[in-house]
Specification:
Helix content is 26%, strand content 30%. The chain is α+β, with helices and mostly antiparallel strands. The strands form seven sheets. An eight-stranded mixed beta sheet has the order 5-4-7-2-1-13-17-15. It has a six-stranded mixed beta sheet with strand order 16-19-20-21-23-22, sandwiched between helices.
Length: 628
């Protein structure tokens, strides 16, 4: 009797999870989010979905002599959750430079700094003592008065920190040029499945931020141009008249123009000749704010139509050293990328008013900006720019948690980099680049860490394992899905997901269920195969059975991934007959399938060709008729 009761209980629990979730593993905290109605099994935000919000009013001052950033901010933070918050997690990424900070790799002495110095911290006017917290990249601040559901609190913080040398994503680019990313203390994300995001930044995994509103001023010395996230509000106040006029013309022109030449920067003909100029920017509903400044960089700009239905334009700008030959093309490449991504894949109009390519060291994305290194290889430089601009959609349009689930942004940026590459370089060259740069190092490395499930948290996998789980493997999964569904269904499903979760915080299961809904089919078998398994790519021709002109090719899936492949029949005269096989052939979970091929003449050999789906052991992909 007890056994029957147990069976009924298990059956009830199973059904209550919903059909879409039946065979996908979920951690307990994720199950709780779905049970609480903040997420839904149809892939939509649940009826109880919420996310918190901040309004940031920030004033920065950059001292070019001491290489120091000083700032003060007022944050109006709204608690939209149903929880009473007794503490608030404050994040300052640049404390990664403190000697005691945990890091994922070695650094040299120039990387290190004293880190963040808080001179004042108030909540609703009450002074909060923070000196005892140690201030790593994330720290808890205990509130004197708990923040109730639906309530707001005002945070007023004053701080300073040094711009580090050789810091990659931010800091000093050269003695006259600085990239100030993560330059302000921010309230960390409080969400429905983990509560406060307290994972420290270690310089490997990337970021997770709320969608906030920003009003920012940057006080910079004379002759320093400031580039930033958001719209420049006071060009006439900070730029000489002829420079401001060029800048305004660039906002409505397709023609690439120098806003400021190297000579004009050198002779002080660009900014107003005040001792200091205060540059003002504004951006709403965005996940971060970044700025850069230089007294020597060239400034180029133009614009491009990103929404053909409305005619909406976005500004494309570049700041770079005059010696960087590749960056002389950055605005043109940016125009091409914004137009192509808007009209093709993902097929969503570029959502922001601006994109700036800034020459630095990081090859890193930020809202409305990228910090890219200069290379002598123009093709590679454009490739990197394409990838970083693609991040506009993932994570900045979607708000994904890069720290835990890097495949939700890097995998898509890698996919988009390949798809735009086909258009720019041709399919053969784009595929060659993709295999060399994204696939070969993974598939040729049989070490344990390479075959960890993609769903594994990005913070808990090794260096090589993290890289391949974040970039190449999920990209192959998305491209396999595109192959299987076809462009129309794949595009529709992708845009269903993007539309539902634009401006929100999707997790992997929201993505899986949204694509299921958008494609109008249960793809859980595919998600299990690619994201929850230890599979890899390894097909083999087990045997070939010949009956007259009919060839039955037994294909064994040794590695397990549901990949597309071609069965290529090579005739004695060198001609080829190709049969394409979709990943759907592996839907039933079988490890071997039979592919029927009818030959039209004398067969010399039969070859399995996965294209970009490179095989771990290609030696067994070729079958030859004896004596041929």
């Amino acid at each position: 009797m007890q056994l029957n009761f147990l069976r009924l209980t298990v059956l009830f629990l199973f059904v209550s999870l919903g059909a879409a979730a039946q065979d996908l593993y979920m951690p307990r905290n994720i199950k709780n989010a779905y049970a609480n109605g903040t997420r839904a099994f149809d892939g939509k935000p649940g009826k109880n979905y919420w996310q918190n919000h901040g309004k940031y009013n920030i004033a920065f001052t950059v001292d070019a002599e001491t290489k120091t950033v000083n700032g003060n901010e007022n944050i109006i933070y709204t608690n939209n959750s149903k929880d009473t918050l007794k503490t608030v997690a404050i994040r300052f990424v640049n404390n990664i430079h403190k000697p005691e900070a945990p890091r994922s790799g070695q650094v040299d002495a120039d990387f290190l700094s004293a880190g963040l110095k808080i001179s004042s911290f108030k909540v609703n006017g009450a002074v909060i003592e923070v000196s005892s917290l140690g201030w790593g990249t994330v720290a808890d601040v205990k509130l004197g008065t708990p923040l109730l559901p639906g309530a707001k609190a005002a945070f007023d913080i004053e701080w300073s920190y040094p711009l580090s040398k050789q810091s990659g994503r931010e800091g000093q680019i050269d003695p006259t040029t600085f990239f100030a990313a993560y330059a302000y203390p921010r309230i960390s994300v409080y969400d429905d499945y983990n509560g406060w995001d307290r994972i420290p930044h270690t310089d490997r995994t990337e970021f997770y931020n709320d969608f906030n509103d920003y009003k920012v001023s940057v006080k910079a010395p004379k002759n320093y141009v400031v580039w930033a996230t958001g719209d420049l509000l006071n060009a006439d106040e900070v730029l000489e008249t002829k420079i401001a006029d060029r800048y305004k013309r660039s906002l409505v022109s397709d023609q690439v123009m120098h806003i400021a030449t190297a000579e004009e920067m050198k002779t002080g003909a660009v900014t107003k000749q005040n001792a200091w100029n205060t540059w003002r920017f504004e951006a709403s509903h965005i996940t971060d704010f970044t700025f850069s400044l230089s007294s020597s960089y060239v400034w180029d700009a133009a614009s491009v139509v990103v929404d053909k239905k409305t005619g909406r334009r976005s500004s494309v700008q570049a700041g770079y050293a005059a010696t960087a030959k590749d960056f002389a093309h950055a605005v043109e490449w940016g125009q091409l990328a914004l137009s192509w991504f808007s009209g093709n894949w993902p097929g969503v109009p570029y959502p922001f008013s601006k994109m700036t390519a800034f020459q630095g060291f990081a090859d890193m994305e930020y809202p409305m900006m990228v910090n890219d290194s200069s290379t002598p290889d123009l093709e590679f430089s454009q490739f990197v720019l394409n990838h970083e601009i693609a991040h506009t959609y993932f994570p900045f349009y979607m708000g994904t948690n890069e720290t835990r689930y890097a495949f939700m942004d890097e995998g898509w940026a890698t996919t988009l980099e390949y798809l735009i590459g086909i258009d720019q370089l041709g399919k053969e060259k784009a595929a060659e680049n993709y295999k060399n740069f994204r696939v070969s190092r993974w598939i040729r490395d049989a070490s344990t860490e390479q075959d960890q499930p993609i769903i594994a948290m990005s913070t808990q996998v090794s260096g090589p394992g993290y890289g391949n789980n974040a970039y190449g493997k999920p990209s192959l999964a998305y491209l396999a899905l595109k192959d299987m569904l076809g462009n129309d269904v794949f595009g529709k499903a992708l845009r269903v997901y993007m539309d539902r979760w634009n401006g929100k915080h999707p997790i992997p299961w929201d993505f899986f269920f949204s694509i299921n809904e958008g494609a109008a089919q249960n793809l859980n078998w595919f998600w299990n195969n690619w994201f929850f398994s230890n599979n890899y790519i390894d097909l083999a021709i087990e045997k070939v059975t010949v009956k007259g002109n009919n060839y039955t090719v037994a294909v064994k899936n040794i590695g397990g991934f549901a990949v597309p492949f071609d069965v290529k029949v090579v005739y004695s005269d060198g001609k080829e007959q190709v049969t394409h096989i979709s990943p759907v052939i592996w839907k039933s979970g079988q490890k071997q399938v039979a592919v029927e091929v009818k030959a039209s003449q004398v067969v010399k050999s039969i070859v399995l060709d996965g294209g970009i789906f490179m095989d771990a052991s290609p030696v067994d992909n070729d079958w030859k008729i004896a004596g041929k």
